[in-house]
Design goal:
single chain; about 30% strand; 5 domains; Beta-Lactamase; 6-stranded antiparallel sheet; about 35% helix; alpha+beta
C-alpha cells in the first residue's frame, strides 16, 4: 500500500498540468494526447489503490478461513478473532460468518434474524467459489456494500463462509483522501451491470449513470462495459473525458476523468458546502426508499400481491419513510390490489395503468419515479414503483409508494439551513416548483405562471437550471417596497431516482450594500390560498352559477382554483340550507350531503360558520381519517346569502 501511495505522489509531482489546466474536448494535437496519457497513469494508480485494498481484505479472509476456529463453525470460538479483523482498517460495514443454510452472525450484532440464502452470490459461495465485488444493501446495517467472501472448507466440504461487507462510502472516501484529485477531476468504478461501486462523489454511489438523463453518458457507459479499456467522452455536469479499464480481480470498470471545457477552477465557482450536503442527504433519502422498495418487491415475490402477508409488507414499507402517503401492490394490468394504511383502502381496485410512469414500468420492467401527478387518492404526489417478479421470473406487477416532495425535501433542507441566511427551493425540470419556504409558490409552473413573467432574469436562470444538472448563477430582482434591486446568488444540484431528476437550489439574497434581504411573498405578488378564495367568492359569474345551481360552471371555477392553488385537498360549496352540494375533486368532496344529518366535529363547525355567515377557519378530522384545515368564505348576491365556499388542506 505504501509503495502505491509513493508512486501516486510522484505522479502528481511529475504532472502538475493535471491540476492546473484542462483541454477542450475538440482540441487535437500533443496537449490533448499528453493529458490523456497522463490520465492513464493516474488510472493505473487509482486501480492499484483500490485493488490493493480489496486484495488485502480478501487475502485476510482466506487466511482466517483455514484456522480451526473458523472451521469449527462455533461463533463463540471465532468472534474475537473476527472482531480484531474488523478493526484492522478494512473499511467494513460488517464482518460476518454464514452457515450453509444462510443464517449468519456479524461482529457487531451476533446472530442476525435474516438469511443470506436469497442473495444471488450465496449459491456460488456454497459451491466453493470466492465472491469479489457483488453490490448489495447490507441486511444487517442498511449500508451500501461490496461483498468479499470466501468459503470455509473442512474435510473437503464447504461448511460455512467468511465475508466482509465492504463499505462503498468508506472506501470511496479513503481513495478520495489518498488521491487528492483537483476539483475538475472525477473517479468511479462500475460493476458488470453499470452500477457505481465507487465514486468520488458519495451521492452517486450505487446509482446507474446510464439512467441519469444524459444520452451521451448512457452511450459512454455501454462502451465502457463492452470494452476492456479505452477513452470516452460525454456531457454530464460539463464535458468529460474519461479513461477506463476493466479489473480482472473484481470485474469492475475503473474510470478516471477530467472536466474538459473548464480551464481551471474559476475563483468562487466552487459549490458551497451546503449544496453538497443537500445532494448527499437527499440522495441518501432516495437510496433508502429504493432499497426499501427493492426489499418489499422481493418479499412480495414470495408472498404474492394480495393477502394479509402482503398487507403487512406494505404497512412496514410505508412506515419506513416519513414522507410516504400510502403504499400499494399493483397487478400486471395496472389495478391497485392492496393499499396501506387502512384509510386509503377505499381506492383498492382503482386502475392506474394508463398513468405515464406505469406505461414506462410495463415497457421497461424497471423501477420508475413519476413527476408530480394528481393521484386517484385526490392528492398531488410523486409515485415510485418497483417491479415485482415471481420466483420463476414472470412479471407479476409492482409495489408502489406515494410521497410528497415538499415533505421529503423539508426533512433535509429545514435542518441544514436553520439559522442561515439561505433559502432552498426545488423544481422539476419542467419548471414545477416542488418545494419553497413560501408554500404558496409550491405547485406553480415557473415558465408559465403569470407571477414570474415580470422577471426575465429569473426565467433565464430557471431555463438554465432545467437544462443543466448543476451549476450556479445570479439574477437581479426588485421587490415591492425596496428602494434598490437585490442580487440573488443561486447554486443548484440534482437528486432523484431512475432517471427522474429534481433540481435543488440554494439561494443567498444580498442588497447592494451587502446586507441580507430575504424575499417576501409580496415581492412576487403571490396570493395566499385564503386570499384567492376571497377573490373567487366575489366573482360575478360564479355568484350567478351558485344562485342558479349551475353545477358545470361552478365545477369549472373550482377546477381552475385547484389547479392554481397547490396543496388544497378539496374546494366545496355549502348552500344556504346547510347542504354541501358539490366540490372538486369529486372523490374528496361531499355531494348533496345534508350536514345536519351527521354530528361530526367537522359538520358541527361547518354549520356554526354557516349560521354566523362570516369568514372562519378551524381544524377537524375528516371521514377519510386525516385532519383537515377548513377555511370558509360567505358568498352573497346583493343581500341574498348563497352559502359558503370553503377549502380543505391536510394537516401534516
Amino acid at each position: 500500500m505504501k509503495t502505491v501511495q509513493i508512486i501516486f505522489l510522484l505522479l502528481l509531482l511529475s504532472f502538475p498540468a493535471l491540476a492546473a489546466e484542462a483541454v477542450p474536448v475538440n482540441e487535437s494535437g500533443e496537449a490533448a494526447a499528453t493529458r490523456v496519457a497522463d490520465m492513464r497513469i493516474l488510472l493505473n494508480a487509482f486501480t492499484a489503490l483500490a485493488e490493493d485494498h480489496i486484495q488485502g481484505t480478501l487475502h485476510g479472509l482466506k487466511i482466517l478461513s483455514a484456522t480451526g476456529a473458523m472451521q469449527s463453525g462455533d461463533w463463540n470460538a471465532m468472534k474475537a478473532t473476527l472482531g480484531e479483523f474488523s478493526t484492522s482498517g478494512i473499511d467494513a460495514a460488517a464482518v460476518w460468518y454464514a452457515r450453509p443454510d444462510g443464517h449468519y452472525y456479524t461482529v457487531d450484532k451476533g446472530l442476525i434474524d435474516q438469511t443470506l440464502s436469497d442473495r444471488p452470490y450465496f449459491p456460488r459461495l456454497m459451491a466453493g467459489a470466492s465472491v469479489v465485488g457483488d453490490l448489495v444493501i447490507s441486511k444487517s446495517t442498511g449500508k451500501r456494500s461490496a461483498i468479499l467472501a470466501v468459503p470455509v472448507w473442512k474435510n473437503g466440504t464447504v461448511n460455512g463462509a467468511l465475508g466482509v461487507s465492504l463499505s462503498a462510502e468508506k472506501m470511496s472516501r479513503m481513495l478520495q483522501e489518498k488521491l487528492a484529485l483537483p476539483a475538475d477531476m472525477v473517479f468511479y468504478a462500475l460493476d458488470a451491470e453499470g452500477q457505481s461501486s465507487l465514486h468520488s462523489e458519495s451521492s452517486r454511489l450505487f446509482s446507474f449513470p446510464s439512467d441519469l438523463g444524459s444520452k451521451s453518458l448512457k452511450d459512454a457507459v455501454q462502451e465502457m462495459l463492452a470494452r476492456p479499456e479505452g477513452v470516452v467522452r460525454y456531457e454530464f455536469h460539463g464535458n468529460k473525458v474519461v479513461v477506463f479499464k476493466r479489473s480482472p480481480l473484481t470485474g469492475w470498470v475503473f474510470a478516471i476523468g477530467f472536466l474538459a471545457d473548464t480551464p481551471g477552477a474559476a475563483a468562487g465557482s466552487a459549490m458551497p458546502p451546503i449544496v453538497a450536503e443537500l445532494e448527499k442527504d437527499l440522495g441518501d433519502k432516495f437510496r433508502m426508499i429504493d432499497a426499501d422498495l427493492a426489499a418489499a418487491a422481493k418479499e412480495l415475490s414470495a408472498s404474492g400481491l394480495k393477502n394479509q402477508t402482503a398487507r403487512k409488507i406494505l404497512d412496514d414499507l410505508c412506515r419506513s419513510t416519513s414522507s410516504a402517503i400510502d403504499c400499494a401492490t399493483v397487478d400486471s394490468a395496472g389495478t391497485m390490489l392492496l393499499i396501506e394504511p387502512a384509510k386509503y383502502r377505499k381506492f383498492e381496485g382503482a386502475a392506474i395503468g394508463s398513468q405515464e410512469q406505469m406505461v414506462r414500468l410495463h415497457a421497461t420492467k424497471k423501477p420508475v419515479m413519476s413527476r408530480v401527478i394528481r393521484t386517484v387518492e385526490g392528492l398531488d404526489a410523486v409515485d415510485i414503483e418497483h417491479p415485482v417478479f415471481s420466483p420463476q421470473g414472470t412479471f407479476e406487477g409492482s409495489v408502489s409508494m406515494l410521497i410528497t416532495p415538499e415533505s421529503l425535501i423539508a426533512s433535509v433542507a429545514g435542518k441544514l439551513v436553520q439559522g442561515l441566511p439561505i433559502d432552498v427551493w426545488a423544481m422539476q425540470t419542467d419548471g414545477r416548483i416542488l418545494y419553497d419556504p413560501d408554500r404558496e409558490e409550491i405547485g406553480r409552473m415557473l415558465f408559465s405562471d403569470t407571477i414570474y413573467k415580470p422577471f426575465p432574469e429569473l426565467l433565464a436562470l430557471g431555463a438554465e437550471i432545467a437544462k443543466e444538472p448543476n451549476g450556479s448563477g445570479s439574477y437581479t430582482f426588485l421587490g415591492k417596497g425596496l428602494a434598490k434591486p437585490v442580487t440573488k446568488n443561486a447554486y443548484w444540484t440534482s437528486v432523484g431516482l431512475y432517471g427522474t431528476e429534481w433540481r435543488v437550489v440554494a439561494t443567498h439574497t444580498l442588497s447592494e450594500d451587502g446586507r441580507q434581504a430575504r424575499r417576501e411573498l409580496a415581492e412576487l405578488g403571490v396570493k395566499s390560498s385564503e386570499e384567492a378564495l376571497r377573490e373567487l367568492a366575489g366573482q360575478p359569474e360564479l355568484i350567478d352559477a351558485l344562485a342558479g345551481y349551475d353545477q358545470a360552471t361552478v365545477q369549472r371555477f373550482f377546477t381552475r382554483y385547484l389547479t392554481e392553488q397547490y396543496g388544497i385537498y378539496a374546494i366545496q360549496w355549502l348552500d344556504s340550507r346547510g347542504i354541501s352540494r358539490y366540490g372538486f375533486p369529486v372523490e374528496n368532496s361531499l355531494t348533496n350531503y345534508d350536514l345536519r344529518r351527521r354530528k361530526t366535529p367537522a359538520s358541527k363547525a361547518l354549520l356554526q360558520a354557516h349560521l354566523e355567515r362570516k369568514e372562519s377557519s378551524f381544524d377537524a378530522p375528516l371521514v377519510e381519517g386525516e385532519v383537515g384545515h377548513f377555511f370558509l368564505v360567505p358568498v352573497r348576491k346583493g343581500k341574498r346569502y348563497l352559502g359558503m365556499i370553503y377549502i380543505i388542506s391536510l394537516r401534516p
